[in-house]
Specification:
mainly beta, 19 strands, 309 residues
Length: 309
């Protein structure tokens, strides 16, 4: 009830205009005209000028320059201020990032980056980040997480992937810590002597490995109901493991190594002639989480200036 500009409690602003509710703008239409630019900002102090601002800021919603297209994002701005796109990775719970790919940016098309990551373990939640950089100065990180899982054993080199169902293969390992025990003249117990930092794995694997033909579903090049089809790949796989190049060995239980296959692999029959298996030994030669090891072993093209030290 209003009386003489006041309500029954005498409030001074009783007759003030009711506040207006402004809905979010989610649709913009231009028609019946010729337009040079469309600029939308959240800034409340924006002034109408003859030209729109050249630089994006945190209040800019969209800026369409209408240069023979209706692009209104800041991709063009990124091209002007981005020299490289960087792809990084780290295990969940860790602080240090690892750079796994870089790409120079010269045009909008260069922002497409496809990188198959073979260096992550089964069951390990991994966080990826894509970040733009201008000659070494990084921008904002765009991140996402995945948890890969597989039930196969893989041996990988330079994008070439061989695998086998873990039920058809196995891999036994030994931890090597070169040392010795010395028995003293006046001591009941010997002393343990370890003079170096060497601490690495060696192992022996066996299986009927075939090429990977579909990365999205981890499909191998044989029908599991007809195991004898794998025999035609045995010689090709033997050439693969004997080429002298470092490789990535991954098991479905989460173990992963950078390995060098050592002499001499063997091809043997398991009960029947067509059911053949190749056995090989290997030695661990690097850390799969080390940018330096991956680069100097030829498993990564990310050069030292991009390493996260």
């Amino acid at each position: 009830m209003f009386i003489c500009g006041s309500n029954f409690v005498g409030e001074a602003s009783a007759c003030a205009i009711t506040p207006t509710n402004i809905d979010n703008i989610n649709y913009v239409e231009l028609k019946n005209g010729i337009y040079d630019d469309l600029y939308i900002t959240k800034a409340t102090d924006f002034t109408i000028e003859s030209t729109c601002p050249e630089d994006w800021d945190f209040d800019t919603v969209l800026y369409a320059k209408l240069n023979n297209n209706t692009n209104a994002g800041n991709v063009d701005w990124n091209v002007e201020t981005t020299s490289h796109i960087i792809l990084k990775r780290r295990n969940e719970g860790e602080f240090q990032w690892q750079t796994i790919a870089t790409k120079e940016i010269h045009s909008i098309d260069d922002f497409t980056l496809n990188y198959p990551d073979y260096f992550i373990a089964s069951g390990q939640t991994v966080e990826y980040a894509v970040v733009n950089a201008l000659y070494g100065f990084e921008g904002n990180y765009s991140t996402s997480k995945i948890t890969p899982k597989f039930n196969k054993m893989f041996l990988i080199e330079d994008g070439i992937v061989w695998g086998t169902e873990i039920t058809d293969g196995f891999c036994d390992t030994t931890r090597n810590i070169p040392s010795s025990t010395v028995e003293l003249l006046n001591s009941k117990y010997p002393i343990f002597v370890k003079n170096g930092k060497a601490n690495y794995d060696t192992g022996s694997c066996k299986g009927s490995l075939v090429p990977l033909v579909n990365e999205e579903v981890c499909a191998l090049a044989y029908d599991s109901q007809y195991d004898y089809q794998r025999t035609k790949y045995q010689r090709e796989f033997m050439d693969f493991i004997c080429d002298g190049a470092p490789k990535i060995l991954k098991l479905p239980d989460g173990r992963i190594w950078i390995v060098q296959v050592t002499p001499n692999p063997s091809d043997t029959a398991n009960q029947t002639y067509n059911n053949r298996e190749i056995s090989w030994n290997w030695v661990e030669i690097g850390d799969v989480n080390s940018e330096e090891d991956l680069y100097y072993l030829g498993l990564s093209e990310v050069s030292p200036e991009w390493w996260n030290k």
